[in-house]
Structures are given as structure tokens and as C-alpha cells.
UniProtKB/TrEMBL annotation:
It is found in: Cell membrane. Residues 276-393 form the ABC3 transporter permease C-terminal domain. Keywords: Cell membrane, Membrane, Transmembrane, Transmembrane helix. The keyword Transmembrane applies. This is ABC transporter permease. The chain crosses the membrane at residues 16-35, 272-293, 325-350, 370-390. It is a multi-pass membrane protein. Residues 18-199 form the MacB-like periplasmic core domain. It comes from the Bacteria. Pfam families: FtsX, MacB_PCD. Belongs to the ABC-4 integral membrane protein family.
Length: 402
């Protein structure tokens, strides 16, 4: 007697019901795996992009916006600050590194950041090829930028004003590629890095063409978007942010604190979606139980007949168990495929809109944890559905007695 063949035939006896059971369970598994992996991947991406930056100083406004704009490069800046005053702050003995950045232009949607040679140190970025920037209008490309745009050493291009690619507001002075960074899996991979003079010169030239007064800028009237800081010791972290916020016209934002606050808000949504997925998972397992229980009740005569041909209760229970575990196995495989396919779509959307190249990796721990939940619930469903087999009265069933 081939128990396995009997189980498969029972599954295909009502293919639509079986398909719906597998699909509903797979959707819940896909939701659980997808939301957990997306949450973990985004957190990891944000943590990596923070680099070694302890503090961001910029114009007054939302501290979260300042962090997202100056470190993650996915928001608009809160304004500009005086370069002269920023340099004064950077001379504080508690500060290890103070790097000014200035931006406002892009090429094909990738932001161009004017800064100093110390900027790459925050991300431990090294040149893969080329040389450091020596003069204005030279740029070094992040690894992702070079790959996506197909640019190489010696190529030139024209930048556009703003953060979105456009052909209406294009600067006339070309930028020349002199270097490409090695991949870091950090935000610098999707940035075009130049010096501060390139940003100032491009906008000075733009102002001159517009008929505005054009004069040589010195430190008195130069501006930058923000100042990125790392400290020598925790003492700087305890004192300088308060001094900046209370005694200057600037604001100081702590990147790790602001990102943590952001994930506290988004964590609520993650929990809601996870609970919805768990509810669907429970409902799916109840559906499987009903399906198995109905099979046992409807095919009671066939099961009783098998008993008369020598089948034991254990063999009949195996028929039901094989059906339940087959549904669970197929649903788990389909759920994993659904989660990974959905994540590919979401990651592509994020990359196209925000130029964020999020690393996608399967969390085997989450898969094992979710599979264990499915296994336990199917065990419960099988245990409840085999009760009629255990209590089976063969003589009554075969004689059609109720």
C-alpha cells in the first residue's frame, strides 16, 4: 500500500481548495519574511551610511531632515551656513575631524557633493583607480555611480541644478572624472565627490550669467550646506551639541539618535504588518485543518475500507500527515519566492527613486523561525483532524450506520 500516492490523490481530489490553502499560507509566510528582511536591510544600510560621523551641524530646522540630507542624501537641506563660522567650530580641541560639505547639483539623479579630501575617511573609501582631486571641476565617482552611468577616467559631463535629473537647468562648465572609489556598501558609493571650489565656481558662474554682481568670494561670504564631525572622545559628544544649539544660529543633530528615532516610528508599521501576517498564518492553518478534517469525514468509508484490507490506524494517520506537511512545504517554498520577488521590486523602486543600493540577503534565521511556526501549526491541525480516525467505528461506517 503506497501511502504517499494516496495522499497526493487526496490533495488533487479538490485542487482549487488545495491551491487556496497553499496560497493563503504562502502569502502570510511571504509577508513575514519580506517585512523582516526589508526592515533589517534598511537598518543595515542606514547604519553603514552613517560611517564614522558623530555630529552634523547645519542651518536651523528639522534635525532629522538635516541628517537625512547631509548623511543619507535622500532629503533637501535645511539651508546653508557660513563657511567661516563652520571652520571656527572645527578648531575646537574636542573635535577630531570637521568636514564641510556643499551640494545642490546632480548628474543623472546622483548628487554631487563638494567637500575636502577628508570626506572619504568617514566611509573608509579608497581609490580603485585614478587620482585624488587637485583642482576645481574634477570629480571622483562612487562605485555605483561609475557602474550605473558607465563613466570612466577622463570622461566629462555637465551637472544639473537641483537633486533630480533635468535638461532645463544645466551648468555650462564640464566636470572631469579623475578617480573612482572602491565599493564600500555605504552612501559614498552613489555620490559624485568634488571639492568645495567646484560647487562655488559653478554657482558663481551661474550668478554672473544671470546678470548678478560677480565678485571673488572669500571666507567672509562663502557658504556650505553642513559640517560633518567626529570627536576625539565622548566628552565632545556631551558638550558641543548643546553649545551649538544654545549659543549659535546653527543646529547640531546626532545622526545615530535621529536615525534611531526614525526607526521607532517606522517600527510601528513593521509590527502592524507582522501581526497581520501572523493572523493570516493562523487563519491559513485553520483552513488547512478544516480541509484535512473534511477529507477524513468525507472519505470515512474509503479509510474504513483500507482498514479492512490491513491498514493500521497509524498508516491512515500518515495519509493525513503527508497531506498537511506537503501543503506546508509547498507553501513555505512559495512564500520564500513571494518574499524575495517582492523585495526585488521594492529595492528597485528605492534604487530608482533614492539611488539607494540596498544589499539584499536572505536571512536564514528568519526562514527557520517562520518555518518552525508553520510546522507547529500544521502539527496542531493534523492532530485535531485525525481524531475521527482514532475514534473510527469500522462496522458502523461500512454498514452506513450513523
Amino acid at each position: 500500500m503506497n501511502i504517499w500516492k494516496i495522499s497526493i490523490k487526496n490533495l488533487f481530489h479538490k485542487p482549487l481548495y488545495t491551491f487556496l490553502s497553499i496560497l493563503s499560507l504562502a502569502i502570510s509566510i511571504g509577508l513575514l519574511l519580506g517585512i523582516k528582511q526589508l526592515d533589517a536591510s534598511v537598518k543595515q544600510q542606514f547604519d553603514n551610511s552613517l560611517g564614522n560621523i558623530d555630529l552634523v551641524i547645519g542651518a536651523k530646522g528639522s534635525p532629522l531632515q538635516l541628517v537625512l540630507a547631509s548623511i543619507m542624501h535622500i532629503d533637501n537641506p535645511t539651508g546653508n551656513i557660513s563657511y567661516k563660522e563652520a571652520k571656527k567650530i572645527g578648531k575646537n580641541p574636542l573635535i577630531k575631524t570637521a568636514v564641510p560639505i556643499s551640494y545642490g547639483d546632480n548628474y543623472k539623479g546622483y548628487r554631487i557633493v563638494g567637500t575636502t579630501e577628508l570626506f572619504a575617511n568617514f566611509y573608509e573609501a579608497e581609490l580603485e583607480e585614478g587620482k585624488p582631486i587637485k583642482k576645481p571641476m574634477e570629480v571622483i565617482l562612487g562605485h555605483t555611480v561609475a557602474q550605473q552611468l558607465g563613466l570612466k577616467i577622463g570622461d566629462t559631463f555637465l551637472s544639473s541644478h537641483g537633486f533630480k535629473d533635468n535638461t532645463m537647468d544645466v551648468h555650462t562648465e564640464p566636470l572631469t572624472v579623475v578617480g573612482i572609489y572602491k565599493p564600500t556598501q555605504k552612501v559614498i558609493d552613489r555620490l559624485i565627490v568634488t571639492n568645495l571650489e567646484s560647487i562655488w565656481d559653478a554657482h558663481d558662474h551661474e550668478a554672473h550669467e544671470a546678470g548678478e554682481a560677480h565678485e571673488h568670494h572669500d571666507d567672509e561670504n562663502k557658504e556650505v550646506t553642513s559640517l560633518l564631525i567626529s570627536f576625539k572622545s565622548p566628552m565632545g559628544l556631551l558638550t558641543i551639541p548643546r553649545q551649538i544649539n544654545e549659543k549659535t544660529d546653527f543646529q547640531a543633530a546626532l545622526p545615530k539618535y535621529e536615525i534611531q528615532r526614525l526607526f521607532q516610528f517606522t517600527g510601528i508599521g513593521v509590527k502592524i504588518v507582522s501581526w497581520i501576517a501572523y493572523i493570516i498564518l493562523v487563519i491559513s492553518c485553520i483552513t488547512i485543518f478544516i480541509s484535512l478534517f473534511k477529507m477524513v469525514k468525507e472519505r470515512a468509508f474509503d479509510l474504513a475500507l483500507l482498514r479492512t484490507y490491513g491498514a493500521s490506524n497509524f498508516q491512515l494517520i500518515k495519509i493525513v500527515a503527508y497531506e498537511g506537511f506537503t501543503i506546508g512545504f509547498l507553501a513555505t517554498i512559495l512564500g520564500i519566492l513571494i518574499s524575495q520577488s517582492g523585495l526585488i521590486i521594492v529595492y528597485n523602486m528605492i534604487e530608482n527613486q533614492y539611488k539607494q543600493n540596498i544589499v539584499q540577503s536572505i536571512s536564514y534565521t528568519d526562514i527557520l523561525e517562520t518555518s518552525l511556526w508553520v510546522f507547529i501549526m500544521i502539527i496542531v491541525a493534523i492532530s485535531l483532524s485525525i481524531l475521527p480516525i482514532i475514534k473510527m467505528n469500522i462496522s458502523k461506517i461500512l454498514s452506513n450506520e450513523k
